[in-house]
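look at this fold:
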Amino acid sequence: MVQRALVFVLLALNQLLHVAGDTDPEDYNALLSLMRSWENLSMNWGGQDPCGENWQGVWCSGSRVTKIILPSMNLVGTLSDNIEQLSELRSLDLSYNKDLGGMLLPSIGNLKKLETLALIDCNFYGPIPDSIGNLQQLTFLALNSNKFSGWIPNSIGYLSNLRWLDLSENQLEGSIPVSNGTTPGLDKLVGAKHFHLGNNKLSGGIPSQLFNSNMTLQHVLLDSNKLTGAIPETIGLVQTLVVVRLDRNILLGAVPSNITNLINVTDLLLSNNKLSGSVPNLSSMKFLTYVDMSNNSFDTSAFPEWLLSLQSLTTIIMEGTQLQGPVPVSLFSLPNLETVVLRENQLNGALNLGARYSSQLKLVDMQNNQISEAPRVIEGNITLILTNNPVCPETGEADNYCLVPDPDTSYSVPPVKCKPILCSSGQVSSPRCSCAYPYRGTFIFRSISFSDLSNSSYLMALEEGLISTFESNKMPVGTVSVSDPTMDSLAYLNVTTEIFPSGEDRFNRTGITGIAFLLSNQIFKAPQMYGPYAFIGDNYDNYAVSLEQSKSSSRGIITGAAVAGFILLLCLVLAGFYAFRQKKRANRAIGNNPFAQWDTDKARGDVPQLKGAKWFSFEELKKYTNNFSEVNEIGSGGYGKVYRGSLQMGKLIAIKRAQKESVQGGPEFRTEIELLSRVHHKNLVSLVGFCFDQGEQLLVYEFVPNGTLRDALSGKSGIRLDWIKRLEISLGAARGIAYLHEFANPPIIHRDIKSTNILLDKHLTAKVADFGLSKIMGDCEKSHVSTQVKGTVGYLDPDYYMTQQLTEKSDVYSFGVVMLEIMTGRRPIEKGKYIVREVRMPMDKTKDLYNLHEILDQAIADFGIALKGLEKFVDLALRCVEDSGAERPTMGEVVKEIENIMQLAGVNPRTESTATSETYEDASMRHHPYNPEFFPYSADFPHPR
């Protein structure tokens, strides 16, 4: 014992006497130089060992500094020239420090291993140094929202690994650099996805060699510059383009005819140039959602009929484009149409919106035309503006459409119902009605696929996406509020954002840097309808004081005294420590075992065998999975990994193993097991057992071999489902959920019903899985309001989201979305389009199959089976997704209606299908995915374009 204590003392002394021994001396000197160049340094940079003492915002690998992440830290000063000594630096993010700036010195080019450079919204000025071309490992370069001037360096063309280039919102001038045989240019960046060069002073023509067929560009943003000349025909070679903004320049000539080759483009803005010739026919660009060709010099022409074929259009802006003649009534029946702006043309005749105009339509602006007659009746919340048309009298009383309304942009996500609270000065009431100091900022969306800013569902999708990102990256965020969407003069959408801390009233510095980094480095993927964005973070002045922050920079001075005190203290407590340790070891099994007070029917030690759920030791599960080998890994998620195992009798099992950071507290883990042990139904995945051993938490399920319903619908699993089998799967899943609601004791709300949580066994029988978010119904009624809305985007009950009052009707809503997936094969949200709306829009109950032929899964038709009962299936699904829970059926009623539908289709719902997956799959494609998702928000949520 004495010998062991002596070794311990010597090791402790060694640690304390070598304070500055970990960090490389050159790296340490470089950080000291940065400290001297920053006037407002308030982080805990007071020790002598940045790597060993975890300096805030500094990451190391061994003794070398590899990352400096300090966005929104209120830094003041310049970037020291000595930063070049950080030769192993891979990531540098100093964004949103508005008083950090000066010249960006050529020494930045010596950071040869740099992969990420983000200096967004600082105060840098002067030219971008040509040495930036030396950073050939760079994949992400964001210098936007500064005051950089001069030309874009040709040397950026050397950055062959670059994927993101954002130089927008600066004062850059001159021509766009391209290679000329001796120097490189932007045309060499064939792997780049993003050219964001808007809102500068770039001049000259758009070089034809800027674009080539080898490029993989998705966004080309050259708007709000001084570019002249023609649009090069080579732009039609880059068929990966999704967003093209060439507006607000001085471009001349005709739009190249091959621009129609860009069949993936969703947003096309060519407005405010001097383009001539005829208005281009864009009928081949089927994904177009937002088109703006305003204020050009096109030839006088009739209204372009090709617009009527673009079913995805939400926004048409053709102000001042020399259009004449009547406006076709069929224009307004485009299903997704929100905004029509045709001001300053020569359109005439009677304006007729028709009887079946889009339910999304919000604005029709026809000012300064020759319209002689207005629609007699307009139902819905549509703003019609006909000022300065013959239909409007010059004097006297006029109809509302003869007046120009004041813009109203004060929209936000509807607040959650909770008791209002009065906050102290400087604090803000969060969406959950608690007072805190939020981190504020503004999203600048540079191209959007919608224009109805009053539609709160768009903001809700943005808010949910942010919360999902913060949760999956374990940020200390409680809630998010987005509000006041406004379109600025550059056609950028600005959205005010407030991010509130979780469990505290303010963030510490680590929390702020983490949040800001996720936004500055584009780790947050905005919903697809929002397109490319920049986030501009505000200063944060209300930091919580952390332990690290409170440490004095005089740590080195007091080290000697601490050593002596430490030795004395250690000698005094050694004997007591030994006794305490022995007592702790004796009591550990009882004191730390959350199962100790369970039933006395114990399978092993203090751990019971609950209603068939067996306790496994960790060593047993290692054996069953061959030491958790990679070959047995069959899925993963935010909770951990899933392994296939085989019991001694040959029974296959699926083992969900929590990763260390996801391990729950013992009581919480016990509660989950108790809940799982209560449910026993053929349409629910059953719990075989669990393991709470050696610091590990594992759940053991029955093995379900044919993967998820989502995989079957997408074709990923190779299983092909006909209409009858889809009805059987719907019925099985509905029965499983109905059991949870009506027969489990006590009743259970699943809270995460989705197609990836419905598994298919060897007979393709549906089994509802993953009860990680489930709540006991009685607990919901007692608390009345949930502390945090959980679920998956696309399946989330709007009534639950708005009120936080959790009922079984939330599962009904989610199941209704699954029913729509089953009939269409589509995900809940695809390309920014929500499946509920996509089914409702074309519906016509007077036509065969409700006129839904285009949206139905083509795989159903391939079987040649009549889709009997489909109309009633659609009716039932849409009843399940009513906005109000009171208008939805119960799951018991859903089960009965699906049984009736199956009888219409000629199938006895009481007869168990004996078909196996072999009947429905191509054996050459067969594999067994098993990939349940363990985090509250779905990874299926669409990424931005």
Observations:
- Residues 478 and 502 are 4 Å apart (CA to CA).
- The longest helix spans residues 555-591.
